[in-house]
Each structure stands twice: as structure tokens, then as C-alpha cells.
Amino acid sequence: MTKKETVNTDFSKYIKWFWITIIGGTAMVVLLFLFASWGFYGTLPTFEELENPEHNLATEVISIDGKTLGKYYKENRTPVKYKDLPQSLLKALVATEDERFYEHSGVDFKATARAVAKLGKDGGGSTITQQFAKILLHGEGSKNIIQRVLQKFQEYVIAVRLERQYTKQEILTMYLNKYDFINQAVGIRSASRIYFGKEPIDLTISESAMLVGMLKNSSYYNPLRREELVLNRRNVVLSQMYRNNFISEKLKDSLQQKGLGLNVNRESHSDGNATYFREYLRDFMKTWIKNNPKPDGTDYNLHRDGLKIYVTLDSRMQQHAEDAMAEHMSNLQRVFDKEQKRNKTAPFYDIDKTQIASTINEAMKRSDRWRKMKNNGASEKEIKASFDKKTEMKVFSWKGDIDTIMSPKDSILYYKQFLRAGLLSVEPQSGHVKAWVGGVNYKHFQFDAVKQQKRQVGSTFKPFVYATAINQLNLSPCTKFPNTLYTIPKEKYGMPLDWTPENAGDEYGGELTLKEALAGSVNVVTAQLIDMVHPKNVASLAHRAGITSEIPEVPSIALGSVDLSLYEMVGAYATFANKGLRVEPMMILKIEDKNGTTLEQFTPNSKEVLSEESAYVIINLLEGVTQSGSGIRLRSKWGKYPQDVATGYPYQFTNPIAGKTGTTQNQSDGWFMGIVPNLATGVWVGGEDRATHFAGITFGQGATMALPIWALYYKKLYADPKLNVSMEAFDKPENLSIELDCSKSEDAEQNEADSIDEDPEF
């Protein structure tokens, strides 16, 4: 064999193996792709799933002014459409993650080859479509090299399918809606709201760049834990935007000098606005879901089905209400704490050490700690012992949460010292609830003072007595009654003893008009009225006005001995402002599914309770309370707020306001109910226990405890003319037969007296 033949033979062998390798490798790759598409490495999303990628969609609570008040979710995800994404965000995404996104069909083979050649040191080569496919498949890649390679082939297959089925715009939108930006921010909308307190469309270039920077690894690039690292990553994204001619060099340099500008708004249930209302709504939805199954018979899932609940609350009014409560209650607490330094049984009055121990013990038994330990089989002795062990905890203060160490039992006593409050606003004409504040801080005080709680209402119940008398007897505000002690004998109304109420301050003598009596909250006149009309009729009218709690048919209800909720009281008071027509308070306008299909539309229920004339007369009487009675602080200009919490509030309202204060025995509860023509609002303030209260009436009356919240709230409402809260007079009936001008009555009485003096027969 010649030398030439030997060389040719050896060369043919190499060529043979070369083609075997090429063809075999190609066949292997093709098979790997086929196996991936056939699901050999695991189930792939079906074509239907690709059209409707599986989402855990948050249910959203949307206010009447279009703002999201909160969400219920397993994953805090609320998708947005492409039109709601800013161009700065889309450009930052493409520039950083996939520069040839608009050129490839799902897989960028050039980028893949580069990644293989450099062993991934210069990036993985995955396109945006592949990254989305990865999220749809498994979220995180396997750490096993062989398994990860097989996953890559699955991602390639899904990426190609996505590109065939969707437009580039849809892929970008789905990817941003699906990505988990951590800190309960799943999807771009939640991320925008949580990190910057705004909707995605309002994101700036710098903010868009930060969020795109997180896409590399949100757990690592966590702005709440590694701000400096995230800042550097954001600057890399800005550089990529400049490199791709999306921003100028000057703008890039300018933006890179700025901080992240975070405005963190956590969206857990205990954060944000209307927390107490949202908890009420959660319970309402549980019942609604039971009674309203899907077309296929299964139940909606509040945390996964992406429902939209449109509610009557106004986010602006809600914010004003929460701000007003925080402003006053922090100051009132300061005064209360100062007083308690002299109280040996702080924060309680009227009870001894044994009763205090019993109160703490009952609170222990109601706690989550007790319930959980009992369910786990712990004995009562073990449970009680755990309450004495000191532990690290975060406790509430008006200056912010405090990290401390104390025993659970001590923490119970610590929280007992805080005064609580509730506020509810209702539009009388529609029944729409506009603001609902169930307490001072939902995270630490979860009992709702609007609907869950019932407390003695004191003098705020008196208008129902007056309304019954006016409606039955056609009395005038100018009708006079003697200001003297009045006894209802024990034989009447099944009472075991005579009932003789006394006036606050023990002031008696002369006569008082109904207007003067209600303005001064005179007990003896109210006693005469309820005896004239019968307690049963008063209870009946109150029930028709919307009070659902049981009302004993006894005379003492005239002075507010009955326990009622703030929700009931405000709804009933709204009847007076709505010309005697009761419109049941409503919180929900409609419920939609994730596709925008209306599942239920809600309408208010209404019924007539009083004649229009009687309702107007009651309003006139209640206006007297704020003109010359216990509510006159609304119109004063003396005193300083917040320093002089007890004696003066320079609110200086000049518009018509119908109102009533209320204070219960021992100052345990302070109330103020205030109405303008298109908004009725009630406020309650008190301790968790009736024994927690101010020592005296100066600080403990409703005019000091509750009225300032109403006043601060309405000041904020009137400062925002877009809210259209009325400053006008209440509508007067055209044919009013009852005399309201008491000066005319006095003139008539004087003329009658003069004529008697002149008559020779007398």
C-alpha cells in the first residue's frame, strides 16, 4: 500500500465519524425536543393552559372612586393589560433581559451558543419567552445538571409554542404579570403598589429600572433587605437602556445618582386602609360564596379566583377618617396616661384587685395563645404558666411599634390601657357606607368597634324618644315641659321599683322647650316624654329606623341604658336626615368575576319610618344641640388643640349640623352622632373594659372623647371640595304645620298674658 492510499483511508474514517457525530447529535437533539414536546420529562402546559396560564388571582376590593382598598389572596396577583404598562418598563425589560426579543421566535440561538461557549459566565442566554416558560413550568431550575438540561428543552418547546400563540406584547405582559417580586408582590401591579405606592402606568424610568433589575433574582435583589445591591443592579439596567438608545447618556448619569425612592405600602391584611371593613367583607363573602356557586356548581375561591368587589367606601373619605381618629386618639391617650399615673389600679376604676385578676384571666382565655395550646393538648396549668414567661415581642405605641421583652400576661395589661374608638359614615339618601374605621390599629386591636361591638349609647338614644313623641303627638320644639323631678311608679311597665331619673348637675326649676331640653340633654323631660308615648312605641320606632338589637320596653331606655352597635346607631340617625325614609346601609355595589362578568348587583332596601315633617323637626332639635348645647364646641374658637384637649377645639363650623353627644355611667363610653344633609357620621370612644375610663366628666364626656374625631374628620372633608360634602341647610318640607320658631310662641304667650291682665274679669 502506498503512502498516498494510507492517508486517504485514514481521512475517510475521520469523515465518517464526523458525519456520524453530526447526524447522531442532531438526531439526539431532535429526539430530546420531541421527547420534551411529548411530555417525557414531565407534564407540559396544555394548549388551553397556554391560552389561559394558571394564575392564583387575588380578589380585589375596589372603592367607589376606583382605588384598590385591599386584596384577598394566596398570591398577591392582579393582572394588568399591556396598555397599562409604561414604555419605560418595557424598554428596560427588553434592553436588560433580551435585546433581540422582537427578532427571534422564542429561542435566541446566538445567545444560547454564546452561553454554551462561555459556560454561562456571560449570562444564560434565555430569552424573555423562555424565562416566562420557566415560570409556567417549574419556577426555579433544578440544581441537578442533567435534570436542568432536560428542563431547558422543555422551556424551548414551551417558548416556541408561546411565540406561535401570542404576540410579543402579550408575552411581555404575561411575564410581568406572573413574576414574583417577593414581599407579597406577585406580578408587576402588586410590585408597583407595594414598592412605590402607585399603579404601573405611573412608574418613572428609575422605578421601572429597579423592578426590571429584580427579575434577575428577586430574592437576592430584595430592595427591603439589600438596598445598596439593588441600587447597583438598577444602575446596570439604566446602562443597558442607554446602550440600546432608549435613554440619553445625560439622563442615565442623572438617574444613576438618585436613590431608589421607595415608598413601601405593604398589602397584608393588617396593613393599608379600611382594614376593619375588609375583615367584615371577608366574612360576608364566605356566606355569599356558599349561596352563589359557579355555573359548574363549584364554589368560588376568594383567594384565587380574581373576583372584583366594588364597594361603596370612598378611599379619600376613609383616609380622612383614619387620619382624624389617629390625630385625636393619640392626643387623648396622652391625657389618659397622664391621669393614670395617679391611679393605683390603672388602667381600671371601680374594681378591686380580685376583679382585675379575673378580667386578665378572662382575656387570657380569649387569646389565640390559650386556644392553640389547648388544641395541642396542654393543661390549664401549663397554659397559665406560659403566660408568665417573658418573651420578645413587638407592641403598639402611638409613636410606632416597640420591640420589647415582656410576658404575655403583662402584654394583656399593657393593651388594656389603650382607649379604643370607632367611626362610621353613611350617605343617608343612598345608604352607602363611605368610611368605616373599626379601631385605632387593626394589627394590634382586631375587635371591630363598628359592627361587632355593642355598648351603652347614653343620651344618643334620646332623639328616638323625641321622634316618637313628635310623630305621635305632633309636638313642637317650642312645647314646654316642667324641669322638675318626674317619677314613673313601679306599677307601670312591669318595673319592680319606682323610676325617678335625675339631671346631670342636679339643676331643676322652671320650664324648658323641647329644643332646650334636648340641647341640654335634660333627663327629667325625656322621662316625661317616654311616659307619654310608652316605651314599647319608642322601641318600635327605633327598630323601624334600623336598630336590630333587642330593646327592653322599659322607661330607662330613654336615657340610653341599652347596648347597641355604632353600625345600628348611624344607620338609624341617617333616617332623620333622609326625611324619615330608612335606607338600609349598604357596603357592596357589585361583584364581578375575573373576566369582568357581573355576578351580582346590589341595591338598597328602604322603608318609611317617620313623616317628612316629623323627621325635619327632629333635625331642627338636633341642630339646637350644636348651636347652644353639648355640641357647641363645634362652633367655638376658644382653646388650643391638641394641647388643651379637654376645654377647647377651635373648629368654628358655621354650616348647619344636627348632632347629639352621649356619655354613659362612669364615663365608660363617649359618643357623638353628627349629621349634615348628605352625610351621617357616628363616633364612639371608650376602653376595652367598662372599668377603663376617665375619672371625671371633664375628660370623659362624649364632647371631649368622641366629638373631636368627628370635627377633625369633617374639617378634612370640607377641605376637599371634590367630595361634595354638604354645607347647606337641611331641606325644609313645603307644608310644615309644626311651629319651629320659638320666639313667635313666646310672643303669642306674652300677648295672651297681656290680654288676660287687661280683662276686667281677672
The gist of it:
The protein is an alpha+beta fold. The chain contains 27 helices and 18 strands.
Describe what this molecule looks like in 3D.
The chain is of the alpha+beta class and 762 residues long. Helix content is 44%, strand content 11%. It has 27 helices and 18 strands. It has a five-stranded mixed β-sheet, with helices on one face. It has a five-stranded antiparallel β-sheet with strand order 7-6-18-17-16, with helices on both faces. A two-stranded antiparallel sheet has the order 4-5. Helix 9 crosses helix 10 (227-243) and helix 13 packs antiparallel against helix 26. The model is unreliable at 31-42, 117-121 and 750-762 (pLDDT under 50).
Helix share bin: 40-55%
Q: Name the structural class.
A: alpha+beta
* End-to-end Cα distance: 165 Å
Strand order across the biggest sheet? 2-1-3-13-14
Could you give the count of β-strands? Answer: 18
The number of helices is: 27
Using the alpha-carbon principal axes, give the shape.
elongated
* Cα-based radius of gyration, to the nearest Å: 35 Å
Biggest sheet details: 5 strands, mixed
Query: What do the pLDDT scores average to?
Result: 87
Low-confidence stretches: 31-42, 117-121, 750-762
Query: Into which percentage range does the β-strand content fall?
Result: 5-15%
